[in-house]
From TrEMBL:
This is ARC1. It comes from Xenopus tropicalis. Disulfide bonds join 179-206, 239-266, 362-389, 425-452. The keyword Membrane applies. Keywords: Complement pathway, Disulfide bond, Glycoprotein, Immunity, Innate immunity, Membrane, Repeat, Signal, Sushi.
Amino acid sequence: MISFSFCIRCWCIFLLIIIAALFSGTHGDCDFPPRLQDADLKTTQNSFTIGTVVEYVCRPGYLKIPGRNTTITCLSNSTWSTPDVFCKLRSCGNPGDTLNGEFHAEDFNFGSVVNYTCNVGYNMISKFNYRICQTDGTWSNAVPQCEAQICSPPENILNGSFNPTKDEYYYQDSVTYKCINNLVLVGKSSMFCTEFGNWSSAVPHCKGVNCANPDVPNSKRLSGFSGPYTLNSAITFKCNDGFDIFGQSTIECNIDSQWEPSLPQCLGRCGSPPSLLYAELKPDFVDQKTFSSGAEVQYACLIGYNPISGKNSTIICHDATWSTPDVFCTSQICPPPENNVNGSFIPQKDQYLYKERVTYQCFNNMEIVGDPSRFCTATGKWSSVVPSCNDSSAQICPPPENIVNGHFIPQKDQYLYKESVTYQCFNNTKIVGDPSRFCTATGKWSSIVPSCNDGNTAGVILGNTVLMLTLIIVTQVLGKFF
């Protein structure tokens, strides 16, 4: 059997080995040196003890910065010292300009790509339209080249020609067409070679232009008295007295041998609009004596007449003639009026037109009270009120009013229908007004109370109240002024 002391010895040796291994891993070597973006390690070793120095070298496309340290050291704490920034990108310099083009780039350093483009009207003729900054500080391939766009000669035209004539035309070169034999060129006379290698417009053509001699009735010419009328020939018209021009007064012969704008018209004016049944002109048109062709006037229905829905209240003047107006007004209508008690009215109908009248009559010799005649008004209602029929034989009036400086005869306590009284004045005063009054069918006295005038004052006794009216003596007033 293994003794207890031997086991303890083995255990202690094992612990010493573990501790030695840990001490050796923590404080003996450095890890593999860090990798740098712009430099590579200049060594092949795999273990790095404390104090080991390793060196870097700049990668292709990078240059060493003078005075900067390219090494790092494994420190006593098993870490590497901080490396300097000792490499920079290599520059290729300006890549070179191209004629009739330009390039675009952010910088000229290693790896940069410079793209070239041609100006409008020029095409890239090189295989590559770019250059790349290489590791050795030079640019790839040659500077791209641009060449002007070329157009083939344009088409010839019948009865015309163009100038200048060449075998080929470059961007923005132009040609001008013209016609022979007094023909007119239709289309653009000039065109140019575009950046796409075609011409800027369609080929024009030559055409004969001849407009007919126009006729505008009721007018005279201010210009363009005789032809021939070719392209852009112009005529100016003026209408005769009493006529107005409609359209443009000046017209021109266009490329299609047509007058442009269309021929004007000289149209006669209208006189006063016609009078219409049941209607009158609106105020805006009443004082106007003449109206141009195309003018419109409006009518309004007279009082007592209403517009008919859907009918036109407007007429139009056209070449001295008014259009035929609609009948657009109809009379106001009243329903039959009310009957009165003990009477009737004539004529009797289902409806009555504006201003139609009816007359009321009483039965049994009764007296009519009120206006016996009524008419249909503009509002569709009847005028006044319905008269009544009274038995006048039973009507009684009280005594009439007394007068100052006078009296009436006969004097009684009551008076029957149609009984009359006569007023008389005292002291040689003169009666003013109708001296005779009679008892009416309504139980009231006819007319007003007369008065007795002595030249200065007049009085009227109303019951127990005396109303005195002071009069100006005319002779005294006249005496003051004369």
